[in-house]
C-alpha cells in the first residue's frame, strides 16, 4: 500500500460498511457489511478479530455532514484552543466528530483568521462500526470525510487550478467540493441514485448551477474569479451530458475514469465508481487524523504505536549491540595481529635466556643464601664507610696550603650508636635464633669514618703564632667538605687562656710545627 506498509481502508456509508486494502496498483474489496443484515456487526467483529494489529483508516461518505466557513480573531495558544472548542460546542453540540481547520488570514482589516468548521451531524451512523472495531482490538487511527481528501484527488487532476469545484458521481450520490488553492472551503452531497445516465446527467448539471449560485451569493467565490469545474463520473453519464455552457469565469473539464486511474497510478475496478476508488486511494496515503476519535476508540492505535516504538527501540539496541560486538571482534583481530611479532619476540628472548642459563654452571647454593647475599651487598653499598670524601677534602686543603707537609694518616670506622668506639666489620654467619638470615654486624646502620691526620708546617720555625693560624685555616678548609667535620685539633702551640703555655722542644728542627687533626665523615642516608 502506497504511503503505509499495510492498512485496512473502511468506507462507511448510510447503507453499510466496506473494508478495502491495496495490493500493488489495485484496490481489493476484503469484505462488505450491510445495515439491513442483522448479523453485520457480528461479522464485522469477526473481521476485526482476524486483523488485529493492522492499522485501519475510516472514511465516512455521508450526506449528514456540515461545513461552515467563518472568521475568528487572530489568537494563538490556549486562547485559540479554548475559542475553537467553544465554537465547536456551540455549533455541533450533539456529535463528537467535529473539527476546525485554519485556512489562512484575511488580507484586509483586522486580518482575522479564516477557519472551516466541519462535523458529522448524525454520529449514530458511524458509532456502531467504530465501537465494534474498538471492542475487537482493531487499531483505528483516523476518521476522514471525502471532502478532507479532495485536495489530494484534485491535485492530480488539475494541479495548477486556483478555484476548483470537484464534482464526483459516487455510490452515495453526487458530491460537490469547493477548493481554493487545494484547501477545502465547501462540500455538499446530493442524493442521485437513479440508474439512468440521462437522469444523472440532468441532476448533475442542475446541482452544479445551484451550487455555483450559492457560492456567489455567499461570497465564497468572487464573480470575476475563474472556477474550474472538474466532473468525475462514469463514461455513460459524461456521454449523456449536453454541451455545458462555459464563460470567462467558468470552465468545465470532463474526466474519464481511465484518465483518473492513470493519474492516480491505479488499475480499474469493475462495478465501483471511479470517484470512490480515488478517494479510497487518497485515504490510504493520509496520515492518522481527521475527525477526533474518543480515547477508547484510539486506545488500540496508541497501543500499536507504543508496541512499534518498543520494537524500534529494541531493534536500535540490538543494532547498537551488534555494532559494538563487531567493533570488539575487529579490535580483537587487530590485537591478535599486533601480538604475533610480540609472541615471536618473547619466544626469541626465552630461547636466549635458556641459552644463557645453559652456559651458567649449576650451583647448589639455596635460594635463601642467594637472597641473603644480595641483601648484604645492598647493605654494604648503602651503609659501608667510605674514606673517599675525607681524602678529597684533604687533597683540596693541601693544594691550598702547600707549606703543610703530610706525615701520617690513620683511618678508622665507627658506628654512631657505639658511643664513639671503633668497630670491626666482619661477617658472622647465621644468627643464633636460626632464622636463616645471616647478619653483617656493624652495617645495620650507616657507619661513619674517622681520619687522623698528622702533619707539620714548614718554613716558619721562628713564628709559632703564624703556624697556629695556618693550622686553624687548614682545619676550617677541611670542614667545608661534604659530610666532613673536625672532631679534634692538636695545635703546635696551645694559646688557650685556661691552659699554660706549652712549647714542644724536639731534638731536631724538622719536628717543630707538628700538629694533628681528627676529622669525621658521615655518609648520606639514601631514602
Structure description:
With 527 residues, the protein is an alpha+beta fold. It has 12 helices and 21 strands. The two termini are 84 Å apart. It has a 5-stranded mixed sheet with strand order 3-2-1-4-8, sandwiched between helices. The chain has a 5-stranded mixed sheet with strand order 11-10-9-12-13, with helices on both faces. Helices cover 38% and strands 26% of the residues. It folds into 2 domains: 8-64 and 122-293, no CATH class; 375-521, no CATH class. Helix 3 packs parallel to helix 9 (295-359).
What structural category arises from helix and sheet content?
alpha+beta
How many DSSP E strands? 21
Helix count from the secondary structure assignment? 12
The end-to-end span amounts to: 84 Å
The low-confidence parts are 1-5, 424-441
Largest sheet: 5 strands, mixed
In short, what is this structure?
This protein is of the alpha+beta class and 527 residues long. It has 12 helices and 21 strands.
SSE order and pairing:
Blueprint (H helix, E strand, L loop, with lengths): L7 E6 L2 E8 L2 E9 L5 H11 L5 E5 L4 E8 L4 H15 L6 E8 L7 E8 L6 H9 L4 E5 L5 H8 L5 E7 L4 E7 L2 E8 L6 H21 L9 E6 L2 H6 L9 E6 L1 H8 L9 H11 L10 H65 L7 H17 L4 H13 L3 E11 L11 E2 L12 E2 L6 E10 L6 H15 L5 E7 L2 E2 L7 E2 L10 E8 L6
Parallel strand pairs: 1-4, 4-8, 9-12, 12-13
Antiparallel strand pairs: 1-2, 2-3, 5-7, 6-7, 9-10, 10-11, 14-17, 15-16, 17-21, 18-21, 19-20
Protein traits:
five-stranded mixed sheet; rod-shaped; 527 residues
